[in-house]
Amino acid sequence: MPRRFAFVLVAAAIALFASEQARAATFTFVTSRSALGANDYVDWGQLGPDDSFAANPSAVTSSLGGSYTVSKAIADSFTRFDQGGCCADAPPPIATGDHLLFTNDFGNDGQSVILAGGMYGAGADVFADAGGAFVARITAYDSIGNVLASFTASGDSNGSASGSLAPFLGIVSDAPFAKIGFSLDSATGDTNYLGLDRVSLRTTQAPEPGSLTLLGLVGAGLVSLARRSRSA
To answer: Is domain 26-206 classified as CATH 3.40.50?
Structure first.
């Protein structure tokens, strides 16, 4: 009987795991780095010093050594500025010394900054280069560019002035996705000219509550079985 009980517990755990892998992925919009649960990040300082150009596309490395690629549709280069340096006066919460990446493009055809590489979540503070109100967008994509989820948030680019804000836009999923994109839906100036600070990344999956509960029961059952076997 104890062995049969252990078999039932293990079989149930396997069945739950399989069902969670088979169901459709869930994507959640988050508006803070803490809610993202990030364990890694990509800092744009690696692409060059303040007031410099960066190639499009560019290979970048995360703080934990992950390999990613940053790109945009328009072929010209990115620009790199540091907050408070040569030319950057981004809105809060971006702080002095933060390494920023700009699209360096003008126009209104919905330019996006795309970071490609495996992830369970990603997010950044996003802002329009031109002063005034804007609406920013974050989009999760699969490996061939299909949209998996997309969300927006409003902000205002007026440097350190009262009411100025670079909103944090993040997406967390219970399944890995291939790319994250940042863009502007609307802006007082050009929607193609946007900036963002470091991209926080979540590279591990958060266990589902049901999985944690069942794994706890399996563990308790196996411990109990082992004790009974020793005392027999």
So the answer is: no
